UniProtKB/TrEMBL annotation:
Superkingdom of origin organism: Bacteria
Source organism per UniProt: Spirosoma endophyticum
Limits of the TonB-dependent receptor-like beta-barrel domain: 14-379
Gene3D superfamilies in alphabetical order: TonB-dependent receptor, beta-barrel domain
Alphabetized SUPFAM superfamilies for the sequence: Porins
Keywords assigned: Cell outer membrane, Membrane, Receptor
InterPro entries: Beta-barrel_TonB (IPR000531), Beta-barrel_TonB_sf (IPR036942)
Protein name (Swiss-Prot/TrEMBL): TonB dependent receptor
Amino acid sequence: MINKENTSLSLKVNGGLDYQSGFAFIYLPTDLQSQRAEANPGFAQDTRTEVYNSNIQVAAVFTQLAMGGKLNLTTSAGAVRLHRDFRYNYTRGRNLPVGVQNPSRGGVQQLGTEYQLNTDVGIFAQQEANYDDKIIGTVGIRFDKSTLNGDNFNKFYAFPKASLALNLTRFGDWATKSGIISQLKPRIAYGATAGLPNWGTPYSQLDITGIGGLSGLQPLTTLGNPQIKPERATELEYGLDLGLFNNRVTAEFTLYNKKVVDLIQPLNFAPTTGLVSTNINAADLVNKGLELTIGAEVIRSRNVTWFVQPIFWYNRSEITRLTIPERLTGGFGATFGQWRVKEGYSPTQIVGQPRILPTTDPNYASSWTVYGDQQPKYELSLNQRITFFKNFEFSALLHYRNRFTVVSLQRVLFDEGGNTSDWNGTTETGNDGKQPNGIYRQNVNGLDESGKPKPGYNPSVASFLKLREVSLYYRVPKAVLNSAFRNVVQGIRVGVSGTNLLRWTDYKAGYDPENSNFGSLALGSGVDIGSAPLARRMMFHVAIDL
């Protein structure tokens, strides 16, 4: 590092190395109840996994003060390299002799192996400028290439970014004279990034098979695409930061427009080709949304401070280009609802049976009934922080999600077993009075003649309000610590906290409309098959600073 009066130059080198080795063994003896009905009873599998990750980043940072110290310039440039080595293999045996656990002794054997090697390389440069805290700007660019792309690790993709903010309260003394506005900062920003293809997408891969009792190879029915490109996204964001009464009241307003191009989608082949599909860059998507945050110290006194921060946001998506036919994905078929990928529509829209004929064009092909959308109409959260009697601190976070659609099979499964709470009730709207609710629901889906949801399983449109987090802490006064520990202990903080303690919802088809058996997939995540609700947790804390 080099320092002078108005300039400095530093070189930073960061790196990391991760190694993970795993071993798993499964053995199901022939006399196990679950094995007795199998065609080849007795099962064993030996699995080995190794993962090796490494990363290194080198960056040079040059800072300079100019124009008498009013202009602060920061220039940075560098490179980054990420590498991943994944190795997975297993030996599986069925029809094992009694008491034998070695999978290679099975009458039916199967081998599986997968090696994944990929490397990402990036080069970046950035220039930041701050003029007297009045004008703050940044421009930068990053070039990336990856072995996951279909260009054989030869092509760099460029991802620029830029931002500009004006601190209007620094222009003149009008803000000081008003005594009301303490911050007024309009801002605009633009940036680009990318999502890489899954490993192996550029290549047509081989699979292990058995031929005449010997191991062999055969091509998979998914064709590789050597022309595959990364999914690229650009976002334009503009907003306003506002502070009132010496920042006792703050607000942030943001609008954004995010465009994603070259989304990777499956292209299906005709059955006569012997192939099923390949992945191509077939779609573009746009996301538009709004975020509004307001923060206020409602009470600010010697003994009590109360900070309240409500947040409002929403997002709307639309597929603007699709070069493959419309398709349904996720879920368990159109009876219960699937995600529709179609140009001009939201990719999170959920549709299903029955197929209907649009009244606006009788000659148009039949379409699907719209059940709803996985994205909520809007979301709200309320964060509160209260300090009282100087050393107590209480905080709570509430979260509300308004009207989003869930593909729920839990009530289906309960109805099939006659275990639903209202299975034989008569209060279900639309019940014909001749069948129990549980039977009636299994035959009803979609919308009625007036366009309202029929009282079947779908759509399961839900809202919820949750107490996400709550905590209470007490900090032992400094005088007590000095008296008890003679400056050895600098601080003691004790408290209790909880997560997911309370939930209010109109969702009747399952336990929790937020949960999904398929995690956080972009399409198909909101599927409830009896998934357990988020666990309520209570934790006690003791923190000691020495």
